């Protein structure tokens, strides 16, 4: 029997300390989406029972290795669910393994709500969210993944290094040093 998803299938949020999807979940709920929270230990049974359109998981909680196993088990029991992961900048090296486990979209902490909503709209329309459509990290080194993450954070922050640094949970001076080491054009160190 082929599993079909209702156009109103819920969004399943796997609970974790300081859940990075909480703000998005509140906004989705306010927009009329059905949002269900489940404890980590009940994730597989909840995904099986609910057949959610999206299952949101924090890659770092409790650890990337445990979460990767959870993603694979969720996809085994609810193959049609789209797994969105949220990763801390320091866990970027685990994102390719998450794609192999079945994740369909990733966000760095904190996930920008506009990207979350765009990915959900893609899923609701039946199209693929774009982050993993071509597995952008396949064949990349950790250094290349790091540079991609930094550049994406700066782009999301509209060029503001301090804002990008906050999003990546590092200091602005760390980003300035990285940019300098990569030969990127110097950016103003004035407050933005």
TrEMBL record:
Q: SUPFAM superfamilies attached here? A: CheY-like (SSF52172), Homeodomain-like (SSF46689)
The record's annotation in InterPro entries points to: CheY-like_superfamily (IPR011006), Homeodomain-like_sf (IPR009057), HTH_Fis (IPR002197)
Tell me where in this chain the DNA binding HTH domain is found: 141-180
Q: Which domain of life is it from?
A: Bacteria
Output this protein's name: DNA binding HTH domain-containing protein
Record the organism: Celeribacter arenosi
User: In the record, what lineage is assigned to the organism producing the protein?
Assistant: Bacteria, Pseudomonadati, Pseudomonadota, Alphaproteobacteria, Rhodobacterales
């Amino acid at each position: 029997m082929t599993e079909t998803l209702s156009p109103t299938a819920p969004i399943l949020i796997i609970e974790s300390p300081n859940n990075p999807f909480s703000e998005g979940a509140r906004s989705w709920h306010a927009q009329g989406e059905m949002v269900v929270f489940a404890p980590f230990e009940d994730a597989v049974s909840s995904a099986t029972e609910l057949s959610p359109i999206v299952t949101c998981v924090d890659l770092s909680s409790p650890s990337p290795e445990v979460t990767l196993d959870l993603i694979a088990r969720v996809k085994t029991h609810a193959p049609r669910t789209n797994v969105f992961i949220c990763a801390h900048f320091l866990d970027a090296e685990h994102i390719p393994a998450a794609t192999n486990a079945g994740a369909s979209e990733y966000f760095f902490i904190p996930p920008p709500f506009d990207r979350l909503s765009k990915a959900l709209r893609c899923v609701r329309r039946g199209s693929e969210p774009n982050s993993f459509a071509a597995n952008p990290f396949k064949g990349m080194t950790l250094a290349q993944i790091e540079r991609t993450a930094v550049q994406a954070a700066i782009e999301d922050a509209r060029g503001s290094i301090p804002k990008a640094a906050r999003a990546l949970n590092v200091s602005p001076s760390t980003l300035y040093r990285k940019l300098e080491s990569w030969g990127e054009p110097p950016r103003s160190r004035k407050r933005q």
